[in-house]
Amino acid sequence: MSNAKKGVGASNTCLCIFVTALYGWVKSVQKKAFSYQVVLISGMDNIVLITGATSGIGEACAKKFAAAGYPLIITGRRSERLLHLKTVLENNYKVNILPLVFDVQDRTAVEKLLGNLPDEWRNISILINNAGLAAGRDSFDEADMNDWETMLNTNVHGLLYVSKAIVPYMIAKKKGHIINMGSIAGREVYEKGNVYCASKFAVDAISKAMRIDLLKHQIKVTNINPGAVETEFSLVRFKGDADKAASTYTGITPLSGDDIADTIFYCAQLPAHVCINDLVITCTQQAGTYYFHKNS
Ligand code: NDP
Ligand code: 8X3
């Protein structure tokens, strides 16, 4: 073969390598864009309301949705944390944030604040009913009645008050998605779980009831039921006993708030005709409320 032909062959090979590399790069960018589910949200459409955004799963959801450009209403009782989160989200993601400080157990406060939202904050597309807690882990005969009331008032009554205040906005625009935070504790009762389990069984029933009754308004309802998620949950449950709280997660790699936020975000991104009604999610080392495979 002549030197001239060899030269043409070599430059064709180079071109071919370059085109293949370029194609690979374009494909990887496309894949990344898809896997991160880049969603461009603008203006005050598609507001997301997250209760209990001052820590754990709620805070992770706030970061996830803000990063995708959603305007957010974030709530909780700890005003300092809430205002700090507002600043962080606004600075990092350039989205509008409305922080509302209230106790979900306080029906009057919920009705007053959420029932009279400023006009520009009424276009709520997604409600994440996340605020909740376990108080104590005691045998039925020894448990504190105040703990029981706190759990029922927060996890059940609070969720109902917030939902009743927000549903009219969704009905008005014939669109919406309510995501309730249930628990694996709402599927299986475990020893000393008594009223916490009862409150999450109630969330399960309420979610199913909402789905049926709100069907005519085309409002989606999704019940998310996680197993162990490492947040402030156990610290609250064991009333500040950090050792007891940490022991809940010893020997396992538990779920994180981010894992649940990713799952919720996925449910919220599905096409209009698709609704995940119910979802149970645990870490790989957990198969139920009692079954754990712990590292020795
Ligand atoms: P965290 O304790 O980290 O977060 C709980 C959030 O709820 C906080 O932002 C807290 O805010 C808010 N909250 C609690 N009580 C009230 C109240 N009366 N009024 C308003 N806000 C309130 O726990 P998680 O993130 O883990 O918990 C979030 C949800 O997930 C709960 O419903 C919990 O039951 C559920 N869940 C948790 C699991 C886990 O293993 N962690 C597993 C399954 C479900 P503030 O204190 O500022 O008011
Ligand atoms: C929290 C999970 O198993 O501690 O809802 O009840 S569990």
Question: Which properties best describe this structure?
Answer:
binds 2-hydroxyethylsulfonic acid; globular; seven-stranded parallel beta sheet; alpha/beta; 296 residues; disordered N terminus
Assign the CATH class of the largest domain.
Alpha Beta
Q: Please bin the fraction of helical residues.
A: 40-55%
Superfamily at the CATH H level of the largest domain? NAD(P)-binding Rossmann-like Domain
Rg, rounded, reads 23 Å
CATH topology name of the largest domain, in short, is Rossmann fold
- Name the hetero compounds present: NADPH dihydro-nicotinamide-adenine-dinucleotide phosphate, 2-hydroxyethylsulfonic acid
Q: How many beta strands in the DSSP annotation?
A: 9
User: What is the SS-derived class?
Assistant: alpha/beta
**How widely separated are the two ends?**
68 Å
Question: Can you characterise this structure?
Answer:
With 296 residues, the chain is of the alpha/beta class. The protein folds into two domains: 1-35; 39-281, Rossmann fold (3-Layer(aba) Sandwich). Helices cover 48% and strands 14% of the residues. The chain has a seven-stranded parallel β-sheet with strand order 3-2-1-4-5-6-9, with helices on both faces. Strands 7-8 form a two-stranded parallel ribbon. Helix 6 links the parallel strand 5 (176-181) and strand 6 (219-226). Helix 2 packs across helix 9 (257-269) and helix 5 (145-172) runs parallel beside helix 6 (194-213). It is globular. The model is unreliable at 1-8 and 29-40 (pLDDT under 50). 2-hydroxyethylsulfonic acid binds next to loops.
